[in-house]
Amino acid sequence: MILVNTDYITGKEFEMLGLVRGSTIQSKNIGRDLTQSFKSIVGGELKSYTDMMNNARALATKRMAEEAESMGADAVVNIRYASSSVMQGAAEVMAYGTAVKFK
């Protein structure tokens, strides 16, 4: 499965199959939240939150690719990511793009 954030793949012609998406909702861990609260006092990167969001993006991407595969797609083009807070301490990460089949 080829995954790109452009609307083309050099040297490939394809037909569009449709929109595909994958998402996950991640919540903060109380232990992680306490340690990150102390970090926010002194400043700097909140590494455990960065790791959590990276894992969430990877899972959303995997789910999007699985949906594309179930449609018989060879690739997903024009991939985008979005995130939003769904409640206090939880965020949704969504990956979406256009599933395509090579001609």
Structural descriptors:
Translation Initiation Factor IF3; 103 residues; 36% helix; alpha+beta; UPF0145_dom_sf; 41% strand
Please give a structural write-up.
This protein is α+β, with helices and mostly antiparallel strands and 103 residues long. The protein has a single domain, classed as 2-Layer Sandwich (Translation Initiation Factor IF3), CATH 3.30.110.70. Helices cover 36% and strands 41% of the residues. The protein contains two helices and four strands; from the N terminus they run ββααββ. A four-stranded mixed β-sheet has the order 1-3-4-2. Strand 3 and strand 4 form a beta hairpin. 17% of the residues are buried. Pfam families: YbjQ_1. This is UPF0145 protein CAFE_04530.
Write the layout of secondary structure elements.
Elements: E1 2-3, E2 14-27, H1 30-42, H2 47-70, E3 75-87, E4 90-102
Parallel strand pairs: 1-3
Antiparallel strand pairs: 2-4, 3-4
> Roughly how much helix do the residues carry, as a percent range?
25-40%
CA-to-CA gap between the ends?
Answer: 15 Å
Strand content: 35-45%
The CATH first-level class comes to Alpha Beta
Strand order of the largest sheet: 1-3-4-2
CATH homologous superfamily assignment? Hypothetical protein apc22750. Chain B
Q: What is the count of DSSP helices, taking H or I runs of 4+ residues? A: 2
Number of domains: 1
Categorize the overall geometry. Answer: elongated
Kindly name the structural category. alpha+beta
Q: Mind telling me which CATH architecture this is?
A: 2-Layer Sandwich
DSSP E strands, number: 4
- Mean pLDDT across all amino acids: 89
Rg calc: 17 Å
What do we call the CATH topology? Answer: Translation Initiation Factor IF3
Question: Which sequence of SSEs, written as H and E, runs from N to C?
Answer: EEHHEE
Unreliable runs = none
Specify the biggest β-sheet.
Answer: 4 strands, mixed
